[in-house]
Amino acid sequence: MGKKSLKEKIIDTALILFEKEGYHGVTVDRIVEQCGTSKGGFYHNFKSKDELLFHIHDIFISYVIEKAQEAYDRYTTPVSRMCAIIQSFTKVFGMYKPHITVFYQESTYLKGEFEININRKRKQYKNIILQIVREGQESGDFRSEVPAEITVMAVIGMVNWLYKWFHEEGPLSIEDIGKIYVDLIFHALLTEKGMKDPEAQEHLLRNQPVKR
User: Fold this and answer.
1) Per the database record, which ranges form the HTH tetR-type domain (predicted)?
2) CA distances from 109 to 17, 18, 52, 59, 136 (A)
3) Among 13, 66, 79, 129, which one is least packed by beta carbons within 10 Å?
4) For residue 21, what are the contacts with CB-CB under 8 A and spacing of at least 6?
5) pLDDT tens digit string along 150-161?
6) Structural domains in the chain, sorted by start
7) Which among 73, 105, 67, 104 has a CA at the least distance from the CA of 89?
8) CA distances from 6 to 39, 91, 132, 189 (A)
9) What is the pTM of this model?
10) Cα angle 110, 4, 56; round to 5
């Protein structure tokens, strides 16, 4: 692995301090002291502490949007698209758990353009999933009696809560949890027609929960 840039070092230091002491409990002076840089080094990379907090969230929300769009473009059915999105969404909690934890603890401090931009990206992600659910309902693969908006919020809420309880040293890997989520969501959402679809069967077989 290559040497980390100063920007990456500042982010890593801020993640530790924000998670431990809270956003308002940490000053720029404290960040640069812990990071071993200067205020000039900090402000060369971030205009403010608010921009740093925005960047922390933007890292992972941009990743999930990219993966969701990749899933939509790569696969051709609502079932396969939903499966790929759930897996990539779950995986982000293994890759960026500190970023996500800090954001959900401190996101109320984002204001102005930072808040607007983050909310826009979160809505963009939600809309990709919403489109897939609606397409699945129109094709008869997903249950139409379940409101699409509520389905989307249930999926996002279930996966989002991982930041509260997932631990890498726990009995299940993030990949194991992703398989469980696919199984739960598909059995709740798919119609009889959807369950019989060969692509759905393939996904369900490939994502059988690990027995412990």
Assistant:
1) 4-64
2) 16, 12, 12, 17, 37
3) 66
4) none
5) 999 999 999 888
6) 1-46 (1.10.10.60), 49-206 (1.10.357.10)
7) 67
8) 12, 26, 40, 46
9) 0.83
10) 10
